[in-house]
Write a structure and sequence with these properties.
The protein has about 260 residues and is an alpha/beta fold. The chain has helices at about 20-30, 55-70, 90-95, 125-140, 165-180, 200-210, 230-240; strands at about 5, 35-40, 75-80, 100-105, 105, 110, 150, 185, 215-220, 245-250, 255-259. It contains seven helices and eleven strands. A hairpin with a 2-residue loop joins strand 5 (about 105) and strand 6 (about 110).
Length: about 260
């Protein structure tokens, strides 16, 4: 069973290609369960996400595609939601979708993974940034609002590494994820970024396995050509950590699949 739950559309304003093109690529890669989880609307950093008045269009487009392709591929509907207390909207959190991915892209309003703001890294204590990041992941997990943790160690994107042991820094976040019942995605996008490795690292993935945290898979595609990118390597990463099954979601309910 091949699962890929994190893919985008042009509504986020920084992706390209049609829904049809993404699905055709998923079929080429023999994906069985393919999910769209575009950036949910929010009253923050609005140029990199859909508007609230586009939610209906987005959901209808994905549902129509799911119906049209129902005999060839199982298409699921979700949102990627930024963890930003005070900005997350009930219209998103209560949407009738299959799953919600929660991601941390901001620390005190700083988009640490955005090349536009890479200069801010020079002003940071790297150990403190990593700890703040994982503290936000833990708070997000404890909220009980979401189903999947997006790209667990995204903070490494530009290659900034702490002096402290990353496993120790992430321990509290992984404990909170395990207690929440959330799944963790194995995300191929890191291989396309300066860090040139998947999210999360094998060490963190082994810690997740030890805690019984389920996993799923993500191309995090922002263009059709990125669908299925290094999928075999994601599978190898999961197996190296001890996994032999992955989770998908339908109507916010988990479903386990062998791979």
């Amino acid at each position: 069973m091949r699962i890929d739950l994190h893919n985008h559309t042009t509504l986020c304003n920084h992706a390209e290609g049609s829904v049809e093109q993404y699905i055709q690529e998923a079929l080429k890669h023999e994906i069985d369960i393919f999910g769209f989880a575009d950036h949910a609307p929010m009253d923050f950093d609005e140029k990199y996400r859909m508007r609230f008045d586009q939610m209906g269009q987005y959901e209808a487009t994905i549902r129509e595609a799911a119906e049209r392709y129902r005999d060839r591929i199982d298409i699921r509907l979700g949102y990627e939601v930024d963890w930003l207390p005070g900005h997350m909207d009930p219209r998103v959190l209560e949407a009738k979708v299959d799953y919600l991915i929660a991601s941390v892209h901001f620390l005190s309003g700083w988009g640490f993974d955005n090349p536009e703001f890479i200069g801010h890294w020079k002003e940071q204590n790297i150990d403190e940034v990593w700890q703040r990041y994982f503290d936000e992941i833990a708070a997000m997990a404890r909220s009980g609002l979401f189903d999947i943790v997006g790209h667990l160690d995204l903070i490494k994107l530009f290659g900034h590494r702490p002096d402290r042991d990353i496993c120790r820094l992430a321990e509290g976040a992984l404990d909170a994820i395990a207690a929440s019942g959330m799944a963790l995605e194995l995300n191929a996008a890191g291989w396309r970024k300066p860090v040139t490795e998947a999210y999360p690292s094998l060490d963190l993935l082994k810690m997740a396995h030890d805690r019984g945290i389920p996993v799923t898979f993500a191309s995090d595609a922002h263009a059709p050509r990125q669908v299925g990118y290094r999928y075999a390597d994601l599978l190898d990463l999961a197996r190296s950590a001890g996994y032999d099954e992955a989770v998908s979601f339908r109507n916010r309910q988990a479903q386990m699949h062998k791979f």
